[in-house]
């Protein structure tokens, strides 16, 4: 199952880097597969996160499908997050961390509740930022992906650790592609 989840996730992020709407159905499929993998590995925060990812993917799919109000196209309009939005995201991350940590420590047999809660909260935020089409989502994804590599090696999920290494490279590609699209849009 990890191999299937690996392939679906890689395809999903690659399509997202190029701003393709097919990102979101693939996100649903990869999240479903990884939900199983993570539950089996007792990464309960990550397993539950996959179900939230499915909901956020549906939200993003609908958001991206709506026509751009400025140009009446189906191309996504990427933008930078405001300082105010980034500050709110930081507060949301902290609050989510404490809630998730409490749940993992008190209601699961997780052996890594702190890092699982931290990364789960960060991943939720990065997905929300991607759905909002904020360029900075790529930076947050790269940050959490670096830490996820260590967690997955610790949990003997080596293929998934490799995936997250590749995802960091795709974060750079995504940043570059979205930046290019923003420049083109600004020049039209």
Describe this entry's structure for a reader:
This protein is mainly α and 188 residues long. The protein has one domain. Helix content is 78%, strand content 0%. The protein is built from seven helices and no strands. The protein is globular, with a radius of gyration of 16 Å. The termini are far apart. The model has no long low-confidence stretch (mean pLDDT 89).
Q: How many domains?
A: 1
Q: What's the overall geometry?
A: globular
Total strands: the figure is: 0
Q: Mean pLDDT, rounded to whole units?
A: 89
Which sheet architecture does the biggest sheet show? none
Strand percentage? under 5%
Radius of gyration: 16 Å
**Helix share, percent:** over 70%
- Summarize the helix and strand pattern as letters: HHHHHHH
Uncertain runs are none
Number of helices: 7
The secondary-structure class comes to mainly alpha
- For the terminal residues, how far apart are their CA atoms? 45 Å
Overview features:
188 residues; mainly alpha; 7 helices; 78% helix; 0% strand
List the helices and strands and how they pair.
Blueprint: H1 2-17, H2 23-40, H3 44-65, H4 83-107, H5 113-131, H6 137-154, H7 158-186
Helix pairs in contact: 1-2, 1-7, 2-3, 3-5, 4-5, 5-6, 6-7
Explain briefly what this protein structure is.
With 188 residues, the protein is an all-alpha fold.
């Amino acid at each position: 199952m990890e191999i299937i989840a690996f392939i679906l996730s890689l395809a999903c992020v690659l399509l997202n880097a190029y701003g393709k709407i097919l990102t979101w159905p693939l996100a649903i499929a990869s999240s479903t597969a990884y939900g199983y993998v993570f539950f089996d590995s007792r990464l309960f925060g990550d397993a539950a996160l996959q179900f939230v990812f499915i909901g956020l993917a549906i939200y993003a799919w609908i958001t991206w499908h709506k026509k751009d109000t400025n140009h009446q196209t189906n191309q996504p309009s990427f933008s930078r997050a405001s300082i105010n939005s980034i500050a709110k995201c930081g507060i949301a991350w902290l609050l989510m961390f404490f809630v998730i940590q409490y749940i993992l420590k008190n209601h699961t047999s997780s052996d890594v509740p702190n890092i699982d809660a931290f990364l789960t909260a960060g991943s939720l935020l990065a997905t929300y930022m991607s759905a909002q089409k904020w360029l900075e989502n790529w930076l947050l994804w790269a940050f959490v992906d670096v830490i996820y590599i260590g967690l997955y090696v610790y949990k003997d999920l080596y293929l998934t650790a490799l995936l997250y290494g590749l995802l960091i490279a795709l974060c750079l590609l995504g940043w570059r592609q979205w930046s290019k699209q923003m420049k083109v849009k600004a020049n039209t």
